[in-house]
Amino acid sequence: AHGHGRKVCIVGSGNWGSAIAKIVGSNAARLEMFDTTVKMWVFEEEIAGQKLTEIINTQHENIKYLPGHKLPPNVVAVPDVLKASTDADILIFVVPHQFIGKFCEQMKGHIKKEAIGISLFKGVDEAGFCDGLGFGDNTKAAVIRLGLMEMIAFAKLFCKGRVTSSTFLESCGVADLITTCFGGRNRKQKDKAHFCIANFCREPQGDTPHEEQTQLW
After folding, report:
1. Given this structure, which CATH class describes domain 1-121?
2. Identical fold, 1-121 and 123-187
3. Residue 11 near residue 84 (C-beta atoms within 8 A)
4. d(Cα 164, Cα 108) in Å, to the nearest integer?
5. Residue-level pLDDT at 72
6. How many Cβ atoms are within 10 Å of 100's Cβ, its own excluded?
7. Glycerol-3-phosphate dehydrogenase NAD-dependent C-terminal domain location, by residue (predicted)?
8. Number of Cβ within a 10 Å radius of residue 91
9. 90 strand-pairing partners
10. What does the domain layout of the chain look like in residue ranges?
11. Do the Cβ atoms of 72 and 61 come closer than 8 Å?
12. From CA 195, how far away is CA 132, in angstroms rounded?
């Protein structure tokens, strides 16, 4: 075990977060540049009368979100996000995008100034701005096209090996992009976006009422 390397904290423990914890935990255990222990913030809940953090720390498995896959024993589940992140050098965020602001606000002033943040969540809060501004389908299509172009450019810049544009025509590319923009949680932001834009972009009136602050969040 090596305890003097860079400390890693994973913020999030759903199926995606647990899958990342399995990979990160294995790498941290074998690479001396990292501290062996990887803390993972877990939303505390009870499964059959037992706390999920206790199950993960004793059985080394997230039986609710990633059953059948063992986590490395050096991955430690922590129910308090501040206790999990305070001494971390690297923070890996794997939570739904609509919660990231809340977590950052809680952690503000409690983490190392030189800590590095890595985003592994997808989606953009208030993604229905085209609807809120009253734009039509042509504008939405243009925004989606630009998003797809950025995805391709990002992959070609950062991915090793050959990257082909045809890959982005598969379900993992344009299909997922369309679903993200038009369905699920992101689509539900349309009403919030419409409310915010109507009150702040079209008719700015000084201070923000409490109700509008709530809608923004």
Report:
1. alpha beta
2. no
3. yes
4. 40
5. 97
6. 18
7. 127-188
8. 23
9. 8, 116
10. 1-121, 123-187
11. no
12. 7
The Cβ of residue 66 has, within 10 Å, a number of other Cβ atoms equal to 20
Backbone angles phi, psi at 112, to 5 degrees: -65, 140
Residue ranges of the chain with per-residue pLDDT less than 50: 187, 197-198, 200-217
Q: Report the DSSP beta bridge partners of residue 46.
A: 51
Query: Which ranges constitute the DSSP H helices of 133-209?
Result: 137-158, 176-182, 184-187, 190-197
Distance of CA 155 to the CA centre of its chain: 19
**Residue 169 to residues 45, 122, 160, 166, 174: CA-CA distances in angstroms?**
39, 19, 20, 5, 5
Beta bridge partners of 51: 46
Supply the mean pLDDT for the chain. 83
Q: Which amino acid is at 33?
A: M
Q: What share of the chain is helix, strand, coil (3-state, %, to 5)?
A: 50, 15, 35
The highest-level CATH class for domain 123-187 is: mainly alpha
Residues 6+ apart with CB under 8 A from 49: none
Residues of the chain with pLDDT > 90, as a percent, come to: 49
